[in-house]
Amino acid sequence: MPRPCKKRTVCLDLKAAYFKPRGIPMSRLSEIVLEPDEMEAVRLADLNGRYQQEAADRMGVSRATFSNIVHRAHAKIAEALIQGKALRLNCPKSARKFNPHSKEEEP
Questions:
Q1: Whole-number Å distance between alpha carbons of 37 and 10
Q2: Alpha helix locations (H) across the chain?
Q3: What H or E segment, with its residue span, contains residue 31?
Q4: Which of 4, 9, 28, 46 holds its CA 20 to 30 A away from the CA of 54?
Q5: Distance between CA atoms of 91 and 89, rounded to whole angstroms?
Q6: pLDDT score for 17
Q7: Residue whose C-alpha is closest to residue 100's, from 1, 3, 5, 11
């Protein structure tokens, strides 16, 4: 039996919740779902350029767990782009959850 999933700190302000290939109706597309922790890992590592240990600390997970999360996110994003699938971001449009231990609030 696997261990229960640890709560992760996520700080997102999404402008869109869905991405799909242009000109293809949704009814003809397969969908890939990106979870909030995967989006946060991509934001911290790729957009903000944080090292894995620093990003893991911000999310409240181990470096190895962060590495697994970001790898899973990259695989999903690559599959959606290369195979022409829809990508759904599985979180509310303006969801924000700040780490109470953090000194700075990130957008």
A1: 6
A2: 36-42, 52-59, 63-83
A3: strand 31-34
A4: 4
A5: 6
A6: 80
A7: 11
For a pLDDT cut of 90, what percent of the chain falls above it?
A: 53
Q: For tokens 């990106």, what's the residue?
A: 34
Tokens of 67: 């590495």
Residue 3 has pLDDT above 90, yes or no: no
Q: How many CA atoms lie within 13 A of 57 on its CB side?
A: 7
pTM of the model: 0.75
Q: Are 57 and 4 in contact (CB under 8 A)?
A: no
Instruction: Kindly state the tokens that stand for 48.
Output: 């903000």
The 10s digit of each residue's pLDDT in 34-70 is: 988 898 899 999 999 999 999 999 988 999 999 999 9
31-89 belongs to which CATH class? mainly alpha
Domain ranges of the chain: 31-89
* C-alpha distances out from residue 44 to 2, 3, 31, 33, 85, Å: 27, 25, 24, 19, 24
Cα 107 to Cα 47: distance, rounded to the nearest angstrom: 12
> C-alpha angle with apex 19: 60 to 50, nearest 5 degrees?
30
